[in-house]
Design goal:
595 residues; Rossmann fold; 5-stranded parallel beta sheet; Aerobic respiration control sensor protein
């Protein structure tokens, strides 16, 4: 920046000098310059000053001065015009990018929001896969656009970070959800491993950090044909954290590792034409430096690549408030849900928080219950046997506006959609949205929003997850959700749900191995097999069985190009993951009984 500053000052001085034009000062400058030049040359060549020649030189200098100044002025004027044109061009580019940023984000957010809404409507598997592709493409386009905007800011040294208090666990969950969708587009698995001493809250620029992680994850998926994408998050020191993204892809040649972060550089994909803009890693490296960290890479050809992002972030200490009951109690709640496992989890959690819960398993039952009882809150699943949660919400709002109902309580959507957009749910008649399975922290925060004081409710089980859940279980289960299930529905009820799950996978509705054999015999369609995998995914999620859920997520996507080739392997893998998960949880629950 010092060289640029000096150059700019010098150009400004030259421009001012050019404006002297035919002034007396201009004459004197040229005359003195000619005189000094003649004196120096005379001394160097003949060793003395020829006064007659000096007089001629002065006369020549005075005569030529107007011409020299004139042409010098033309040159400087042209230089100034070029400089002003360049400055205007840069300003126009910045203005254009700012305008495009506003104009493009609105329709892009609309595409993403509406595609997320459609995920909660009845769809066949092909339509659901199309929507996943739309969602991934919209998110990808948004991050590419962020890279372009940041590139311009880097060039003008205007890139700044915007820190805010961030729920680190929720942030990582969102990254995990979108990464699972991204990986499943190519039939890959995604795994996330968290260090045991991660804080709950950090001061982060969420947008920039997610932008960098997206660039790294999308590159990992792009250059990996089969296997696993892994994100490992560690706390290195008091305020330093690392994010290591590993893949089992083709690897990067050693001679290209030094160039990988160069602007516009692209690594060829096995002889194919390189894909991408070539700016993502360069921008990510700059963002890492702004976060007082770095971005490095290690790779082995044919084995895979690991990108490691390090950042500095200040942890935020909050006074924990262990809560046995919600800050809001004694609510009359109508739970509208048709999956028994989800009903058990949600109903038990709500009752533990001090609420009265009625259950409706269809839209018709929900409307009848609402009309014959007084409820403070409705929790509405979106996909029901006879109608959607949106249709229920619109029916109730229409009744309220037409005076059929005197009061309309808050309507909260329940969804397994990994990318919720609250504004879109509100446009469809909901007041808010919660993800399934219900988590204590999110549920109590939602209840306090509508019925209680604005206080922060901290899930103390989340803060101590890794003291509760052993490491071997954390390889197969989501430790955060498992800890909450055990605490709020109890070990005995969780064990009963595990027993029911075993029955369903051994000859019941969730026996994917049996259904797969029927598919091979031609007795059922691919869609029926995918539907069974979808049910298995939902049941596994309700029990926090993350590894089973991930494989079932691949199995349910019948339109994947790799599906027919890999479905047999996935069936075998989901059987093994299920067996390992059930064996581990069974032993652990047994040890808890003994102790």
């Amino acid at each position: 920046m010092n060289v640029n500053h000096f150059t700019q000052k010098y150009i400004d001085w030259v421009v001012k000098l050019g404006r002297l034009k035919f002034s007396i000062l201009g004459f004197l400058i040229v005359a003195v310059f000619a005189l000094l030049t003649h004196i120096v040359l005379s001394l160097l060549v003949v060793g003395r000053i020829d006064w007659q020649s000096l007089a001629y030189a002065i006369i020549f200098g005075l005569i030529s001065a107007p011409f020299v100044i004139y042409f010098f002025t033309l040159l400087v004027d042209r230089l100034e015009r070029s400089r002003l044109a360049l400055a205007k061009s840069i300003q126009d580019k910045s203005t254009l990018l700012a305008t495009i940023s506003h104009e493009l984000r609105t329709p892009l957010n609309g595409i993403l929001g509406l595609s997320q809404m459609l995920q909660d409507t009845p769809l066949n598997q092909q339509q659901r896969n199309y929507l996943n592709t739309i969602s991934i493409s919209a998110v990808s386009l948004g991050h590419i656009f962020n890279d372009i905007i940041d590139l311009e800011k880097i060039d003008s040294h205007n890139l700044e970070l915007c820190y805010s208090e961030t729920d680190f666990y929720s942030f990582l969950t969102n990254i995990q959800n979108i990464a699972i969708l991204l990986a499943s587009e190519k039939g890959l698995q995604f795994q996330m491993k968290l260090n045991e001493n991660l804080p709950h809250f950090l001061q982060l620029d969420q947008t920039r950090l997610s932008q960098v992680l997206w660039n790294l994850l999308s590159n990992a998926v792009k250059f990996t044909e089969n296997g696993v994408i892994m994100l490992e998050v560690k706390k290195l020191s008091n305020n330093q954290y690392s994010f290591a993204i590993s893949d089992t892809g083709q690897g990067i040649p050693s001679q290209e590792l030094e160039k990988i972060f160069t602007m516009y550089y692209q690594v060829a994909d096995s002889g194919k034409k390189s894909a991408g803009s070539g700016i993502g890693l360069a921008v990510s490296k700059n963002i890492a430096h702004l976060m007082h960290g770095d971005l490095t890479v290690a790779s082995k050809l044919g084995k895979g690549t690991t990108f490691t992002l390090t950042i500095q972030a200040e942890s935020i200490e909050k006074q924990e408030k262990p809560i046995e009951k919600s800050a809001v109690q004694n609510l009359q709640i109508l739970l509208v849900e048709d999956i028994q496992l989800n009903i058990t989890v949600a109903k038990t959690l709500l009752e533990k928080l001090g609420h009265q819960v009625d259950v409706a398993m269809s839209g018709k039952e929900a409307i009848q219950a609402f009309e014959h009882n007084s409820y403070d809150l409705l929790l509405l699943d979106i996909q029901l046997p006879d109608m959607t949660g949106f249709e229920i919400a619109r029916y109730l709002r229409d009744g309220y506006q037409n005076d059929r109902y005197d009061y309309l309580p808050p309507l909260i959507a329940l969804t397994a959609n990994v990318m919720q957009n609250k504004a879109e749910y509100q446009r469809q008649g909901m007041d808010d949205v919660l993800r399934k399975p219900l988590l204590l922290n999110e549920l109590t925060a939602c209840l306090n929003t509508y019925f209680g004081e604005n206080e922060t409710v901290v899930n103390h089980s989340k803060m101590n997850v890794n003291q509760v859940i052993p490491d071997d279980l954390a390889d197969y289960f989501n430790p955060e959700i498992l800890a909450e299930l055990l605490e709020f529905i109890g070990k005995d009820l969780y064990a009963e749900n595990i027993r029911l799950f075993k029955q369903e996978i051994n000859g019941g509705d969730l026996d994917v191995a049996k259904v797969y054999q029927e598919y091979l015999k031609g007795n059922i369609t691919k869609q029926q097999l995918a539907d069974t995998a979808h049910k298995l995914k939902g049941a596994a999620a309700s029990l926090a069985m993350q590894s089973v859920q991930n494989v079932a997520n691949l199995m349910q996507q019948g339109e994947l190009p790799e599906w027919r080739e890999n479905i047999g392997l996935w069936v075998t893998e989901v059987e093994q993951q299920t067996k390992n998960s059930l064996d581990l949880i069974g032993r652990w629950l047994g040890e808890m009984n003994v102790s």
